[in-house]
Structure formats: C-alpha cells, structure tokens
C-alpha cells in the first residue's frame, strides 16, 4: 500500500512538473520544474525497485544535465531564451497526449513489472547477479548500439548549445 502511495505521489509531482516545464514562461522556473520532474522520476524508479536506474537518474540528469542547462541559460541572451511567442504553448499542448501516454506506460510497467518478461529471464538474472550487474550486462551487450547513439545525440546537443550560446560580435563604447 505504501508503494502505491509513493508511486502516486511521485507520478503526480512528475506530471505537474512536466506541465510546468512546458507552460511556464520564465526559463529559470522551467529549469526548476525540470529538476523537480527529474527527481520525481528518480523516485518512481526507486519505488519500482530499480535502484541503479534511479541513482543514475539523479546523478546524470538531475545534477549534470540541469547544471548544463543552467550554464547554457547563462550563455544565451535573454531575448532568445524568453518564451514570449504563443507557439511554445501550442507545442506544449500538442505534446500533452504523448506525455500522458508515457505516464500510462510507466504505470503499466509498475503494475506488472518483470513478471511478464519472457520466460522469467530477467527475474532469474536479478536473483543471480543483482540489479546493477543485470543493467550493465544488458546495456553493454544487447543495447550497445543504442547506448552509443544516445551519446552521439548528447554530443550534438552540447555542440548546438555552444553554438546557440556563442556571443555575437559586440561593439562596446569606451567612453
């Protein structure tokens, strides 16, 4: 029962924070809402028994990526960063069904868990090796190409953020 309450608390916080990321006009508030959403998702992972993934969520996303966003926000001129145009709100509303579908999927995974894995292989591996070893063996064997592609996507994103944040030539008056 307490798992259900914790799951409902974290998922509700994640939903509200996700809406804040999409709908808030101030970039500082958007980053705070994003941090809240990432911590809530880590809480969902902890409740579901995926401690390693929850810890990685906190270390990689809640700390490193949020600090990276703050760094980019300080480098980007405020005129470019403010959400003044109404098309951002339209994009946020259009993305809402995908967000709901994602949370429904997470809810279903939380309900059935590893009990529906083919032939119970994952449950046997977790019992034999432990959570971290199973994640590592699956990640670096079956999903190695996807893992490397994600690292390339992050690299392209970092290069794009540097290009966006690059200061344009400015002329200063030395009076």
What would you note in describing this structure?
The protein has 175 residues and is mostly helical. It has helices at 2-23, 27-47, 51-75, 78-81, 87-112, 121-128, 131-139, 144-165. Helix 1 (2-23) packs antiparallel against helix 2, helix 1 (2-23) runs antiparallel to helix 5 (87-112) and helix 2 packs antiparallel against helix 3 (51-75). The chain is globular. The mean pLDDT is 78.
Mean pLDDT: 78
Helix content: over 70%
Order of helices and strands: HHHHHHHH
Strand content: under 5%
**First-residue to last-residue Cα separation:** 70 Å
- Summed up, the helix count is 8
Poorly predicted segments: none
Question: By helix and strand content, what is the structural category?
Answer: mainly alpha
Radius of gyration: 20 Å
Sheet with most strands: none
Q: Would you count the extended β strands for me? A: 0
Q: What is the global morphology?
A: globular
Oligomer: single chain
Short description:
The protein is an all-alpha fold and 175 residues long. The chain is built from eight helices and no strands.
Provide key terms for this protein.
mainly alpha; globular; 175 residues; 78% helix
Spell out the blueprint of helices and strands.
Blueprint: H1 2-23, H2 27-47, H3 51-75, H4 78-81, H5 87-112, H6 121-128, H7 131-139, H8 144-165
Helix pairs in contact: 1-2, 1-5, 2-3, 3-8
